[in-house]
Every structure is written in C-alpha cells, then in structure tokens.
Amino acid sequence: xxxxxxxxxxxxxxxxxxxxxxxxxxxxxxxxxxxxxxxxxxxxxxxxxxxxxxxxxxxxxxxxxxxxxxxxxxxxxxxxxxxxxxxxxxxxxxxxxxxxxxxxxxxxxxxxxxxxxxxxxxxxxxxxxxxxxxxxxxxxxxxxxxxxxxxxxxxxxxxxxxxxxxxxxxxxxxxxxxxxxxxxxxxxxxxxxxxxxxxxxxxxxxxxxxxxxxxxxxxxxxxxxxxxxxxxxxxxxxxxxxxxxxxxxxxxxxxxxxxxxxxxxxxxxxxxxxxxxxxxxxxxxxxxxxxxxxxxxxxxxxxxxxxxxxxxxxxxxxxxxxxxxxxxxxxxxxxxxxxxxxxxxxxxxxxxxxxxxxxxxxxxxxxxxxxxxxxxxxxxxxxxxxxxxxxxxxxxxxxxxxxxxxxxxxxxxxxxxxxxxxxxxxxxxxxxxxxxxxxxxxxxxxxxxxxxxxxxxxxxxxxxxxxxxxxxxxxxxxxxxxxxxxxxxxxxxxxxxxxxxxxxxxxxxxxxxxxxxxxxxxxxxxxxxxxxxxxxxxxxxxxxxxxxxxxxxxxxxxxxxxxxxxxxxxxxxxxxxxxxxxxxxxxxxxxxxxxxxxxxxxxxxx
Length: 606
What we know:
There is one protein chain. The protein is mainly alpha-helical. The protein folds into 2 domains: 7-244, no CATH class; 248-605, no CATH class. It has helices spanning 5-50, 58-73, 87-91, 95-126, 139-162, 166-182, 194-207, 212-222, 232-243, 250-264, 266-278, 284-300, 303-313, 315-320, 325-336, 346-355, 359-384, 397-422, 428-445, 450-483, 486-496, 501-515, 521-538, 543-555, 565-574, 578-584, 586-605. Helix 17 (359-384) crosses helix 27. The mean pLDDT is 82.
C-alpha cells in the first residue's frame, strides 16, 4: 500500500520539526562552547600577564573544546553558503540530470559521514593513553569526530525527508554506503600516483554539488582503492591532527568580533567616518564603500561578512545616488576582497597553519598589499563608477571630528590585534580572543541585548565550524600530495623552466589563477600553499612575500565565475542576478589584477 500525499506531507512536516529542534540544540551547544573557549583563552592570558601564572593544560583543553564545537556545528553547514557547494555547475545541467546530480552529492556526504563516524570510532577504540595535562583518554578527541559524522548523517536524513525527497534520499544512502563498503575491497594498480585519483574524485564530488569538506573526505577514502596510503582510521586521525592547532582558535574569535561589531552598530559609525572623509569626491558614496571596507577589514577578517554587511548597508543608498543595481553590487563585492588581505585576515591564518609562516609577518605584508589593492580600486571607481553616481555633501571639520570620535572604539580593534601580534605581546589566538572580548564589551555598552549577542555567538560558531572542517579535511589530501612528492614535481618543473624568481612567480600566479576558478579560496590555500612555497624559497623569493601574493591572487577569485562567493553573497542579499554582477565587476577585477601584478613585482625586490 502506497503512502498518500497527505501522509507524505505530515511526514515531511514532522521531519522538519525534528530538524529545526536538532539544529537549534546543536547551534546553542556550539555557542556555549564558543563562549567557554573565549573565557578560557582570555582568562589564561590575563593570568599569565597579571599573576605570571597560567592554567595547566589550558591550550590542550581549548583544542579539545574546539573539536567538540566543530563536531556539533559542522552538520549545520549542510545547506546554505557555509556548505561551500559549487552550485553553479549543477544549476546549468538539464532538468533531467539535476536530480541524479543531487543524489550523487548526497552519496558523497554519506561517504564522508561514514568515514568520520566509523573511522573516528575505530581510532577512539584503538588509541590508548591518557592526556598528561587533562587526564582524559586520548581517544575522546577522535570520538568527537565520530559523533560529528553520526550527526551529519542524521541531519542529512531529516533534511531530505523534510523536503519530501524520500526516494532520492534512499538512492543517496544506498550509493554512498555501497561505495564506502566497496572501496577498501578493491585494489586497482593504474601506475599513476594515488593523489591523481584523489584529486579527480574530489573534483567529481565538487562538480556534483557536494560540500567541499565532504568531497575531500570521500575522495581520500576513494583513493584507498588506487593505493592511497591513508586507511580510513588514518584519514580521521590526520583530519583531527590538522584541526588540533591552537592557532586555529583565532578563526572563531575573529568571526565573533566581526559579528558583534556589526550587531552593535559600531560598523555603522565606521561608515559615517568614511563618508565624512571621502563622500564629497566624485562617486562619493562608492568611495565611501571602499574606505568602509578598508576600515571594517581591521575588525572582521572575513570578506563574506563584509560583503553581507555592505550589501545590506550600501546597496539601497548606491542605487538611490545614481548607480545601477548590478554596478552597486559589483562595487560592494569588489571592495569586500580587502577584508581577507588587510589584517586581521582569516586567509593568512589558514596559510600560516598550512605552512608555518609567521602570522605577524604575514599580517604586516597584508597591510601593504591591501593598500595597493585599495588604491587600484579607488582609481577604478573614479573611472567606472563616477559616470553613474554623484557625490555626497562635503562634511565640515566638526562633523569629521565627531565621526572620528564615534568610530574610535571600532578602530581600536585593529590596533589591539595587529600591535599585540606584531610586537609579541600576545599570541595570535590570544589577540583574537581579546578582540572578541573587546567587541563583546562594546556591544554590551551599546545596549545590545542578550538574545542578539547569543545569536551572534551561534552564527560565529557555525561559520567557524564550517571553515575549520574544511581545514581539517584538506589535511589527508595534503598528506597524500606530500607522499607523492607533488611539491618536488612542481619544483622540478620550475627548474626546467629556468628556475628564476620571476619564472617561479609567474608560474605560481598562473597555477593559482587557474585553481581559484574551481576551488574554494580556503581549500586552494591549504592545498597549493605547501606545494608552491618550497619552489618559491628555492628560487630565492621571500616566503612571507610569496604568501602575500598567494592570498591576494586567490582572494581575487571571490569575484570570478563559477564560484565567485562574494558575488553570490551580494546577489543573495540584494536579489540582483549573479550574472549581472559578474558582468559589472569586470572593471574592478581588472584593477585587482593590476594590483596583483604590482605586488608580485614588489615580491621580487624584497
């Protein structure tokens, strides 16, 4: 007997209610863990500087709490921008192929969930020993990932049932579980390195619309059939090791600082300051948008956060002042690129975690590179946007002073972060924690309610978990690339082409420009940073300068199809079609390419 439409609708509604409750509980628990992490890191820093003592095992405890936060919140990133899906390709498929692509994407997620759940459980049972600082079983860290995998599977099932996609769900579960079981039983000797098949499998999963972290995990498991050196348990172990870095705690704290700054209204005061300084110039509101991005970048460290803020704040005003909707969206997306270059920068944190480069030196280099990019964008705005927009009234000296006084608390955030790191007063993670505490006090002082603050903690925990999971799942990928000596192959290729610094930098830029078209920015940094950096060092290029070039190059791809995450964020907030914004962003894209060329030339002179 079949299920009636009414019964199916009731089942979907019940699944939707369960999903909402589960997501709410996971989000709340992750937010609580983020609050505990903040108190732990800031409290330990205060003890060290005020009383010259510290909590035993504080860093280890913070890392374990972060793993728990990731396990709880990562399943929430199954849908939406945090899923990091390449939806552009699947959206262009014929209607008959879109449903099979969705089933394949779900199969990839099922494989990833099973790898985490079963592989994490296996490691948790096998790993012996007790943490000397915490007195807890070392297996608990891996058990957390196993729990995260199980939660991911539950969220996937409830999500598809709530959408009325029961048959498609069964297809995804059967295919994913079948591949998961079959892969270890196969042994295919192709004569090619396993990393090649790992890359092809990841590319296939991404093309089907699977989230990037899930595609990486499934591909790492699939590489076992082609001689991959990491069995299932080792994949999870490598993932957890990639996440077990105290430096990575800076990511949720910076995201929290940016969210609190926006919610408290302090970001609006940065807008008024920028308008008082440059609003009277040609295309004054457009120049204000650029300067606000420069100022706001010292707080958020996230281009996506600034793109969402700018789309909500500036889009209506830019249109009202004579700019077309697509032109306004393109301007907001282009200026948001600066937020991951001018410190604090999450992109530089990811690069430092992958290559062990100095965070302080990278942030200092980001200041100079961001200045070059801002100047090039200012010229492009003057030439392109000036034709449509008109200037704002010139602010008086008194108005500028008042705007500066109002914005000083927000501007102080950048000083805390960069000065604290650069002069060695605090670690990067502690500086990020202090920045989050500072903005929390700022938000409370501005009357931001407890409910609103809790909402920012929930959002920041979810965003941080998604970014961190990407970092962790890229670790098995990077390990296989290292085993296959891909970095050595690149160095040999560069040597064959002459091996000069100019040749290395040109080749690296071309590789990154191509990779950025089809890879998430964070994933590209994690994969190509360790591969290209040895070749750059061998050619005599300053490693920090090369790291800055790498980040600037990849950040530009926030504006390029098919990924173009900044364009899609602005499109989603404003309702302007992404295709129209992609066309309108071309003048700013050209300006940023000029900036990349100038920064690359400067790297050769250092």
